[in-house]
Amino acid sequence: xxxxVLAENTSASEKLGSEHGLSLYVETENxxxxxxxxxxxxxxxxxxxxxxxxxxxxxxIISHGHYDHGGGLKTFLKINSKAKIYLHQKTFEKHYAxxxxxxxxxxxxxxxxxxxxxxxxxxxxxAIDEDLELFSGVMxxxxxxxxxxxxxxxxxxxxxxxxxxxxxxxxxxxGGKTLLIAGCAHSGIVNIIDHFKDIKGCxxxxxxxxxxxxxxxxxxxxxPKVVDQIGNFLLDTNTQYYTCHCTGIESxxxxxxxxxxxxxxxxxGNQLIINM
Length: 276
Fold this sequence. Notes:
The chain has a single domain (2-273), classed as Metallo-beta-lactamase, Chain A, CATH 3.60.15.10. The strands form four sheets. The protein has a seven-stranded mixed β-sheet with strand order 8-5-4-3-2-1-20. It has a seven-stranded mixed β-sheet with strand order 9-10-13-14-15-18-19, covered by helices on one side. By secondary structure, it is α/β, with parallel strands linked by helices. The protein has helices spanning 42-49, 67-70, 73-79, 189-200, 224-236, 249-259, and strands at 2-7, 23-27, 32-35, 59-61, 84-88, 95-99, 103-106, 119-122, 125-127, 132-135, 151-155, 158-161, 169-174, 177-182, 206-209, 214-215, 220-221, 240-243, 263-265, 271-273.
């Protein structure tokens, strides 16, 4: 399995752009899939430079309804005429973020893309095929990202805290092994791992994703003590982790000091090969 990072907050090459967002190209024995589209069309520009033909992608997944993961969706629809796009049924709800002076800005997806016959709206558990499945409905029981307090939904004229019911995670199964891909882990990466274990009866062999230990709106990182506790939990799972995007460099370095070789960082342009 090959994973190529098409867009992320940092770049491993001067030839490739970066942005606050995430987009991953995943090539398995049976699929060429796109996980998220970043914040803009940048993922497509980088894909060309990385020899990724987006027109050949057979399915795409949008992890949740924030622009930094689905902002490039319009670009993808223009480039690719065949792939189904799997989204949670609540993805296009109205999502906002707090900014200084308590100003709320829209951070949701472009509703002019609706309706679209290529969109497949999923519930809390959706099996795409024998290799791929999606799950959401994760209970935020512990180690919930503090940055969530600045994120809202708009229901009618009222802003309410985002419950992240629109956030879905991807499981890829092959050869008795599993890879879990999370977009931002707004529900908390520890809770997502717990939920995975509840539904699969085991722990994932590999995990890729942002852990939301950094809030771009405030520039604040999660408290070091909390990051250490999360790192110790992840270390005890004996899973190999690859993180990026909203984890933040400072929090990643803290996780690295706890987890050592059990965690690595993925930047735009990185290519990862997983034997499964």
